[in-house]
Amino acid sequence: xxxxxxxxxxxxxxxxxxxxxxxxxxxxxxxxxxxxxxxxxxxxxxxxxxxxxxxxxxxxxxxxxxxxxxxxxxxxxxxxxxxxxxxxxxxxxxxxxxxxxxxxxxxxxxxxxxxxxxxxxxxxxxxxxxxxxxxxxxxxxxxxxx
Length: 146
Fold this sequence. Notes:
The protein is mostly helical. The protein contains seven helices and no strands. The radius of gyration is 21 Å and the shape is elongated. The mean pLDDT is 84.
């Protein structure tokens, strides 16, 4: 995950990121089941599911906040006459009403500012994946099935 995120400047590495996420997300279920008694398996699966759902929701909320806030920060100097709400609508994409009414000269700079805002979301993912990698070094190295 860390390598795929760090190399995000090249779109093809999204597949590498997906492989890292896919291999680590599902690993929690069999490991959790192997570490508990048979009576606790359903509890461990439920807990793992809730924890993963919470993590996804939390990081989506943080990523959305980072994107929206940096988009407003990056676009505001370019369009000082626009309100914050109009700038947030611009960040929704090129199909928004605000984008369609922008003068041609302003469109390229606004798109560049929004793309710069998207990059900040990848920094969050890079930090999270690096933290997971570092913390994985401290996990126990035990055989689950002898």
